[in-house]
């Protein structure tokens, strides 16, 4: 991509859960960092620069946590950068870290993202009154549910598609020791009996509230070539944004997401994403976003994403597995969720995904979105250098 | 309350509250002063000619230009999409279940959220025509909350094509 090559050489994450009362935010972050460094066979002393990301500070009520996390990350005397793009931040933080390497400025970069949802109240923090509207939204579910209804109407998707995705992701999560929810007994029938929370969105179709952190170690090609560890080569990265509200905005399939995917594929030399990408870790916090993103990312024709779901295309055994890790639907430490997607994509091409490994995965996509579907961050990683 | 369980670290309860002032800018000043008089003002983009209600920051993001003339819109409108909220949450003042709808006012091209009342949640549908129910005039402030909620207007539903491009 006209830049220096960059490889992921260490992926670390916490065992995500609803309440990590045993550690502070600093302790949680350090846990993921230590795991990523151990995987890379490195220590904090080897790191040139650190890039931190998390979702809005109001979620835990700690302003600028990067200031005091520099202690825990042994970052004194090193550059520290904070990235902030709402729920997509885990992805965009990884991209900023990769760009530090691809630009040639740094050779060994550590990136980490986190959320300790149990310390605050994300639903309240996302439902604050504004001077120009009325406070009728009830958290992210209240924001996204009308958009899901629009998708259902436009595409003619049958009502059970959301529950199908949810059962798949929850079942996949049982193969992932780091996932928050391990619920092996879901069936479509049981899923459809769960209550409507934000009608048309059912309980099973929503993500949990998690405490967790994820970290990646990325290095330049010359450093990577000296290391005897599995590697995921960064083939391309892309980010795009658009405002939350403007007249005629396509809220179901935002233009920023389509442009981001086009740019991503072009830079990775991918002309047929459905044929060329082996596995995707895509940000799906409400299960209906799987068919919606299948279309937005150019895998399925418009209004056909739900048919892919119904035909099992996104199952672990399907042509294009989506979220073998169980995805955001099984684990949602908001700020970390994007980095977990990016890290899980890397683990797939490194052959380190354990029980949820997709056999022969050579090329994988990591995806994150945030805000009112207004920030998009994506990368393609591969087992080969390019 | 702060929590101390077993040998786990102490969890200290720490409430935070801040009062803010928001500088409304010219477009939202028109919009909010209109609401104080019981009127609904949006602004038209001079390039795409679409009308923003609310006009928020006074900019059309499609064209990257300042919005132009003030345009009175509504008061009736169409529900483009909606959510039936069954989830209790902190600070909630509305009885469950309630309908939070996206409403496109007549003459406007942007949806905003408001409550639907005076019908069962199960009766609400995309394309339903609605009209505002205002608070007592004595209580009117610079706020969209001067409208208590929207209720069905009794008109026939708008066809899907009328609001599809706002979804
Ligand atoms: Zn315009």
The total tally of domains of chain A equals 1
Radius of gyration of chain B, CA atoms, in whole angstroms: 20 Å
| Strand residue content of chain A | 15-25%
**For the terminal residues of chain A, how far apart are their CA atoms?**
9 Å
Q: Please tell me what the overall shape of chain A is.
A: globular
Query: Total strand count of chain A, please?
Result: 11
Beta strands of chain B, count: 10
Counting DSSP H or I runs of 4 or more residues, the number of helices of chain A is 13
Strand order of the largest sheet of chain A: 3-2-4-7-1-8-11-10-9
* Helix-strand makeup class of chain B: mainly beta
Mean of residue pLDDT values of chain B:
92
Cofactors, ions and other ligands in the entry = zinc ion
Order of the strands making up the biggest sheet of chain B:
8-7-6-9-10
Largest β sheet strand count, sense and barrel closure of chain B:
5 strands, antiparallel
Topology diagram in text:
The complex is a heterodimer of chains A (386) and B (167).
Chain A (H helix, E strand, L loop, with lengths): L5 E8 L11 H16 L8 E6 L10 H8 L7 E4 L5 H14 L5 E9 L5 H4 L13 H17 L5 H13 L14 H5 L3 E4 L1 E2 L8 E10 H4 L7 E10 L13 H14 L4 H4 L2 E3 L7 H8 L8 H6 L23 H17 L12 E8 L4 E8 L4
Chain B lengths: L24 H12 L4 E4 L6 E2 L6 E2 L4 E2 L3 E3 L4 E9 L12 E8 L6 E5 L12 E6 L12 E6 L7 H4 L4
Antiparallel strand pairs in B: 1-2, 1-5, 3-4, 6-7, 6-9, 7-8, 9-10
Bound molecules: zinc ion (ZN).
Keywords:
heterodimer; A: about 375 residues; two-stranded antiparallel sheet; 13 helices; B: about 170 residues; mainly beta; about 30% strand; globular; binds zinc ion
How would you characterize the overall build of this protein?
The complex is a heterodimer of chains A (386) and B (167). Chain A has helices spanning 25-40, 65-72, 89-102, 122-125, 139-155, 161-173, 188-192, 221-224, 255-268, 273-276, 289-296, 305-310, 334-350, and strands at residues 6-13, 49-54, 80-83, 108-116, 196-199, 201-202, 211-220, 232-241, 279-281, 363-370, 375-382. Chain A is an alpha/beta fold. Chain A has a single domain, classed as Peroxisomal Thiolase, Chain A, domain 1 (3-Layer(aba) Sandwich), CATH 3.40.47.10. In chain A, a hairpin with a 4-residue loop joins strand 10 (363-370) and strand 11 (375-382). Chain A starts with 5 loop residues before the first strand and ends with a strand. The mean pLDDT of chain A is 95. By secondary structure, chain B is mainly β. In chain B, strand 1 (41-44) and strand 2 form a beta hairpin. Chains A and B meet through helix 5 and strand 5 of A and helix 1, strand 2, strand 6, strand 7 and strand 8 of B. Strand 5 (196-199) of chain A pairs antiparallel with strand 6 of chain B, so a sheet runs across the interface. The complex binds zinc ion. The site of zinc ion has 7 residues of chain B, from loops.
């Amino acid at each position: 991509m006209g830049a220096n090559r960059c490889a992921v050489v260490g992926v670390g994450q916490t065992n995500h859960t609803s309440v990590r009362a045993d550690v502070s935010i600093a302790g949680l972050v350090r846990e993921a960092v230590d795991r990523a460094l151990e995987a890379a066979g490195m220590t904090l002393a080897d790191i040139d620069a650190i890039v931190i990301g998390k979702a809005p500070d109001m979620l835990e009520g700690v302003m600028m946590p990067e200031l005091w996390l520099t202690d825990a990350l042994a970052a004194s005397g090193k550059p520290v950068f904070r990235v902030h793009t709402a729920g997509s931040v885990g992805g965009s933080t990884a991209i900023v870290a990769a760009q530090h390497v691809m630009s040639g400025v740094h050779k060994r970069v550590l990136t980490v993202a986190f959320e300790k949802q149990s310390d605050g109240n994300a639903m309240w923090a996302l439902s604050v009154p504004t001077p120009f509207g009325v406070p009728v939204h009830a958290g992210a579910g209240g924001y996204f549910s009308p958009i899901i209804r629009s998708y259902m109407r436009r595409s003619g998707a049958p009502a059970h598609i959301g529950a199908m995705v949810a059962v798949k992701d929850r079942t996949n999560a049982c193969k992932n020791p780091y996932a928050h929810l391990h619920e092996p007994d879901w069936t479509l029938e049981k899923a459809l009996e769960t209550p409507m929370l934000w009608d048309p969105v059912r309980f099973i179709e929503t993500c949990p509230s998690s405490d967790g952190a994820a970290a990646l170690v990325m290095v330049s090609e010359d450093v990577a070539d000296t290391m005897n560890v599995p590697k995921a080569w960064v083939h391309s990265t892309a980010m795009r944004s658009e405002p939350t509200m403007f007249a005629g905005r396509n809220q179901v399939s935002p233009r920023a997401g389509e442009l981001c995917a086009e740019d991503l594929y072009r830079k990775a030399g991918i002309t047929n994403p459905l044929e060329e990408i082996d596995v995707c870790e895509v940000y799906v916090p409400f299960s209906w976003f799987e068919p919606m993103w299948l279309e937005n990312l150019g895998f399925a024709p418009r209004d056909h994403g739900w048919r892919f779901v119904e035909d099992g295309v996104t199952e672990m055994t399907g042509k294009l597995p989506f979220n073998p890790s169980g995805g955001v639907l099984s684990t949602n430490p908001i700020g970390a969720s994007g980095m977990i997607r990016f890290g899980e994509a890397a683990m797939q091409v490194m052959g380190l995904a354990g029980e949820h490994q997709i056999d022969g995965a050579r090329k994988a996509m990591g995806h994150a979105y945030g805000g009112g579907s207004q920030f998009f961050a994506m990368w393609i990683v591969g087992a080969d250098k390019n | 309350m702060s929590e101390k369980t077993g040998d786990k670290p102490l969890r200290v309860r720490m409430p935070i509250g801040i009062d803010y002032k928001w500088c409304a800018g010219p477009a939202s000043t028109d919009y909010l002063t209109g609401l104080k008089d019981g009127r609904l003002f949006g602004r038209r983009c001079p390039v795409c000619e679409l009308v923003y209600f609310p006009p928020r920051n006074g900019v059309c993001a499609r064209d990257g230009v300042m919005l132009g003339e003030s345009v009175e819109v509504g008061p009736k409108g169409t529900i483009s999409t909606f959510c039936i909220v069954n989830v209790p949450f902190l600070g909630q003042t509305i009885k469950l279940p309630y309908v939070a709808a996206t409403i496109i006012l007549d003459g406007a091209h942007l949806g905003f959220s408001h409550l639907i009342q005076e019908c069962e949640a199960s009766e609400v549908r995309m394309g339903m025509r609605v009209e505002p129910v205002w608070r007592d005039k004595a209580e009117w402030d610079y706020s969209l909350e001067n409208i208590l909620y929207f209720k069905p207007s009794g008109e026939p539903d708008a066809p899907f094509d009328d609001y599809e491009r706002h979804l």
